[in-house]
Queue: 2 jobs
Job 1
Amino acid sequence: MAKKIHKETDIVFHIRRYNPELDSKPLWKKYTVHVEPGMTVLDGLHQIRETQDASLSLRYSCRMGVCGSCGMLLNGRPSLACNTQILDITTKVLTVASLPNFDIIKDLVPDLTPLFEKHISTSPHIVRNDADEMLNPTGEFYQTPEELTRYLQFTYCIKCGLCMSACPTLATDPEYIGSQALPQAYRYNVDTRDDGFNLRKKIVGSTHGVFRCHYAGECSNVCPKGVDPARAIQLMKRELVLDYLKLKKHRAKSHICSKPEGVERIPEIPEAPPFTVEQK
Ligand code: SF4
Ligand code: FES
């Protein structure tokens, strides 16, 4: 397919402004920006701040899609402002608002505190039973390429919160642990160096854990780093069900497929779900 050629043009930025300390409700303001090919939304917002309205608040740092600071709602889609070319998404009007499902600190700056609190609650680090080895390591714990593949994509998360802002479950249950933290729990659960499954399952299997997910899949669609949070959550549901039925332990012990104690019926072990988004 031929590459689309963009031309410079004027674009109207329609920006949702809100200062919770002063305003009773958000207000939409319009700014016209002369856009040239190659300009990102972050460039356009800087131009507004420098030439039209220095009171506009936004958050950014790296300008290269790495720090996760500049997430915002662009024409209705959670996106990174530094990673989005204006002319790729509009040639006329661009609506810009703070990320849904988060409180607003000011204008385009969401309060990501719940993201970090939920992230920490799932113990997103290697947990080991052998405390001696942790304190006095005797060697390295190697990973095979196959072992690495099980969790590699989840390590690419930059904690931008786009997945959480796209999540319909979080929109109705603010306590839902959500699509950033739950995949990080999965990332460590499947790491062969980790012993933290039982610690994490109290959180991820709780009322606001993985079973609240309805598998809308929007988290995976909007993730700018190619992470597939929806898949990790479905895989963790599977892990928890298998753990509950103690099938893993029973099979490892007996190598036969008879019923474990206390289990009426052995269900078919579900296949792992397919990828939610195309893998690059
Ligand atoms: S999973 Fe993707 S969208 Fe969600 S916080 Fe991590 S990088 Fe952002
Ligand atoms: S400024 Fe760092 S991701 Fe956009």
Job 2
Amino acid sequence: MLKLERVSSLRDQLVQEGYDRLSTPRARVKFTGEKEADDLLNDIDLHPHAFVVACIMDRQIRAEKAWRIPYELRLRLGFFDFANLARLAEISPEKLNEAMLQPTPIHRFPNEMSKNILFAVHRIRNEFCGNAAAIWTGKPSSATIVRRFLEFRGVGQKIASMAANILVRDFRVAVSDRYSIDISVDVQITRVFSRMGFVPKNASVDYLIFRARELHPEYPGIFDLVLWELGREVCRPLQPACVRCRFSNLCAHKNVGDAS
Ligand code: SF4
């Protein structure tokens, strides 16, 4: 198979897998593997701010640890419910800092993350009438959701796009388009995208984002979960398990020497 044919076939297979997931009934998302923590995050009707706070925490620590923070805060503070958002908004920075630090630091950057949480809670109270779900209700465009997440302290393109993608892909939130949901570039996605032959080995984050847009402009983030899971479970850094990879017949790593 010629290289260009292989690349487009691989793109089509990845896109198809992404849409296949979207066509299945909504399922509970396993964020942490811990029932109570996942219950809180999956309950975006009654606890939408828990999901928003977890997204904001997802920086420079393992995702499972970040996603567990709203639940851990609920244990440490004794409340984190929707009805108590106002109470959460009134908490002092010192008390929140203490909860972030004791008995063990909840995040690698507890002080900074305390500020981010307080900013988020105040913004949800002031701009979204205390209901974080207003960020995504009313079938907004994907750009609107991403832009609203970008307005939280500590949130960059990667988190904003990831949040929009989880809402659309996993929680099936209705949007008017998916154009602005990019891939959320991390080490897994970079490695797999490169090995598959879509980007050079040392491609920049911007390069990867624009490559995904080029491959599927209608919904660039469609590649996100398939690539990420593959990177975590099969396409490992040192020894990719190509023999059990469903993409091995098309992957560049396994088809070195193809004609271009
Ligand atoms: S075939 Fe191998 S290198 Fe290619 S994506 Fe699969 S595991 Fe990774």
